[in-house]
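Lab notes, practical 5.
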Amino acid sequence: MAKRLSGKEVTAALNARIRANVETCRAHGVEPTLCMVRVGDNPSDMSYERGAAKRCETLGVACKQVHLPEDVSQDELLSVIEDVNQDPAIHGLLLFRPLPKHLDQALIENALDPAKDVDCMTDLSMSGVFTGKQIGFPPCTPQACMEILDHYGYDCTGKKAVVIGRSLVVGKPAAMMLIKKNATVTICHTRTKDMPAVTRDADLIIVAAGRAGVIGADYVREGQTIIDVGINVNAEGKLCGDVDFAAVEPVVDAITPVPGGVGTVTTSVLVGHVADAALKTLGA
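Output from the prediction step:
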């Protein structure tokens, strides 16, 4: 039976650090503040927003929520972002994406000041992930994966790591973060030939495939650590990951559960970025 890499334990340690940073800010008269901007009423966005707002409240970070209609104009949304850029009392912005098709998402994303880009929305922030320069903040989900590995003492040095998924949201930045930890990284995707053979050769697998239960027992072997980023709803209406947990868990050494794994940590990473952004305004 595999060791379960519980996000709850990681989050508890992360939250303690965040509370300390929040107290430092408040001691200097600064209240860390997140602004969340949601266009339309996508249920998954609304669910994440509720969770993030609750986590902010728990950790002492103020949260401003801006809700805009599905047919909002591009100029109106850009005006909201510019207001955030100019407001010294707001330290981070989270914009729910993807945006409606009538909006130029790339233009809107890059309108944000990277100093307030707490989920790696801008090209400048993403360049920081790839170059190692301190620009903005890395995306919250892949950083949550790294927090889990760090918390449980997983040394990536010299390990063979496979990342399944090549998106800029998770796959590519996760690969860059693993390289920074001295892993040897392979990225798999829908055009990868004989993916099970590739993944079985790995020591560590981060799965961000976007399909429920796509990674089965034939993809894994004994001795591996599996980080499952996926959040899906199965035929029974229950949350599940991209990994077939029942099939994979008896084989591997360690695995994150879904729910209760990466997603649990991601929200605290977001709030932590807000506290860090506020600290930077103090010159810390």
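Observations recorded by the TA: The longest strand covers residues 33-39. The chain has two domains: 27-115, 140-263.
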